[in-house]
Amino acid sequence: MKMRRLTLAFLGISFQSTLGQVTTEDAIRCNADVPAIDFLVLEGDANAEAIEDEVRTDLEKIGLKINTRLLSKNDYNAERKFCIFFVFDS
What we know:
Order of helices and strands: HEEHEHEH
Strand content: 15-25%
Distance between the termini: 32 Å
Number of domains: 2
Low-confidence stretches: 1-13
Number of strands: 4
Mean pLDDT: 77
Structural class: alpha+beta
Shape: elongated
Number of helices: 4
Strand order of the largest sheet: 1-2
């Protein structure tokens, strides 16, 4: 249920649920204790940087904290070995 609420709040809409109306403000309160999320971005990849900017902006609207790390190719590849993350191929 939390994912549904988060996703719908992320899209900037509210909906009626069995719990009542869920709003963006509800998502912000729900996310208040969530630790910062690291975004790893390959330095110089304009498409990846543009995607990061759009996603970060939307996530910050619902109270999530984002820590963007621009990394060189070597550092980026090294981090990929030890992290769980989604890759946006540009």
